[in-house]
Amino acid sequence: MQGQSQRVIEAEHLSFAYGAVPILEDVNLQIEAGEFLGLVGPNAGGKSTLLKLMLGLLTPQQGRIRVLGRPPKQARHRLGYVPQYPSFPRDFPIDVLNVVLMGRLGVGAGLSAVLGTGFGGWRRRDREIARRTLLEVEAGDLESAPIGSLSGGQLQRVLLARALVGEPELLILDEPTANIDQRLEGEIFELLARLNTNLTIVVVSHDIGFISSYVNRVACLNRTLICHQTESIDGEMINTLYGEPVRMITHDHGTDDHEHGQSTGAGAHHARGVTPHG
Ligand SMILES: Nc1ncnc2c1ncn2[C@@H]1O[C@H](COP(=O)(O)OP(=O)(O)OP(=O)(O)O)[C@@H](O)[C@H]1O
Questions:
Q1: Pocket of ligand 1 contains residue 22 by CB under 6 Å
Q2: Which residues form the ABC transporter domain (predicted)?
Q3: Structure confidence at residue 61 as a pLDDT band (50, 70, 90)
Q4: Alpha-carbon distance values, 243 to 20, 89, 218, 264 (Å)
């Protein structure tokens, strides 16, 4: 259960480099409980790196990051994470329920169940929670399906269930709809919007136009980070930024060599996969 106005993420003057290559520079970000934040930016802008810092998988060279008031590693069991690409082989002989149950491994009860009785010996309570979570993501009928038999959209729901089954306070998704079609993308985001009624969510996306109708706030990352309230991201603003009507966009800040470089208060923006209308 989240506190009334608990700060879920607090990043202050965060800088990170892989070796000598700077990826994040002086990033400041506060996320309050209950927010649905979209993280957008160009390829290699540092989005996945920022998520890994939130998850405690990387350590910043400068600055500080707190998750639920603690160092990220200490908060990891209270987070749910859906990675960009599923990291297990699709022909692995395991059914959906057991994939979802893996998400209970970080939770005390699930772990002791596995250690005590061997793999597969989950407690009834863990199985109940896993089934309930599959229902929540509208994938209850897939419980016994081999993981390799699922469509892209079904797999995303199952990975979402795996992230939710540990009953997290913050759900982090790295481009959850990158490999599925637009209709299913809408369904997944409808689902995320419902989950957001009692869960803080951070989602990485390339498509600011699409996510703007679901998220409350958009953070734009291209080495440095700038936030916009969703209501300020309307068609007119996007068109002004691009100089022509566009649909699918990412935008970036603070470099001088933009294709559509325009100086705005928020920095210049450019499009990837831009679809001019008309
Ligand atoms: N382990 C690593 N070692 C060295 N460089 C890395 C490593 N991981 C990522 N990078 C580089 O860091 C930069 C930022 O990567 P990151 O994955 O954070 O970007 P991103 O915004 O998530 O990109 P995309 O939209 O393409 O997923 C990229 O240039 C990437 O090649």
A1: no
A2: 9-248
A3: very high
A4: 36, 44, 21, 12
**Domains of the chain (ranges plus CATH)?**
7-233 (3.40.50.300), 234-278 (no CATH)
Q: Does any ligand 1 atom lie closer than 6 A to the CB of residue 135?
A: no
How far is C-alpha 36 from the chain's CA centre? 10
Structure-token pair, residue 242: 């691009």
| Beta pairing partners, 40 | 220
Amino acid identity, position 56: G
Sign of the Cα torsion 94, 196, 176, 190 reads: positive
Q: Whose alpha carbon is nearest atom 5 of ligand 1? A: 18
Could you report the per-residue pLDDT of 139-151, keeping only the tens digit for each?
Answer: 999 999 999 899 8
Is residue 180 within a helix (H) or strand (E), and if so which, with residue range?
none
Percent of the chain with pLDDT over 70: 73
